[in-house]
């Protein structure tokens, strides 16, 4: 678990959150179309990232990320 919980002080967590949100939207978009061709592959790639985000990326970020120092008003 990361020592700093706010994404404001975690430089790797914020882009990962936006990528996860984009994956969520792409999954919804791909799910609203017929599962052929482009939409099929878009859904597969977005689903692959969705699971990798939670199973691989989040634990990895928590281990390797060095949070920015907290301001003195919060510390």
UniProtKB/TrEMBL annotation:
One of its GO terms (cellular component) is membrane. It comes from the Bacteria. InterPro entries: Cyt_b/b6_C (IPR005798), Cyt_b/b6_C_sf (IPR036150), Cytb/b6-like_sf (IPR027387). The keyword Isomerase does not apply. PROSITE patterns: CYTB_CTER (PS51003). It is found in: Membrane. GO terms for molecular function: electron transfer activity; metal ion binding; oxidoreductase activity. Keywords: Electron transport, Heme, Iron, Membrane, Metal-binding, Transmembrane, Transmembrane helix, Transport. It is a multi-pass membrane protein. Residues 1-72 form the Cytochrome b/b6 C-terminal region profile domain. The chain crosses the membrane at residues 12-32, 38-61. Its main location: membrane. Pfam families: Cytochrom_B_C (PF00032). This is Cytochrome b. It comes from Endobacter medicaginis.
């Amino acid at each position: 678990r990361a020592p700093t919980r706010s994404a404001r002080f975690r430089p790797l967590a914020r882009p990962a959150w936006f990528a996860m949100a984009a994956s969520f939207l792409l999954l919804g978009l791909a799910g609203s179309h017929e599962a052929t061709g482009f939409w099929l592959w878009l859904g597969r790639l977005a689903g692959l990232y969705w699971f990798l985000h939670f199973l691989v990326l989040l634990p990895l970020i928590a281990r390797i990320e060095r949070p920015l120092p907290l301001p003195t008003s919060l510390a």
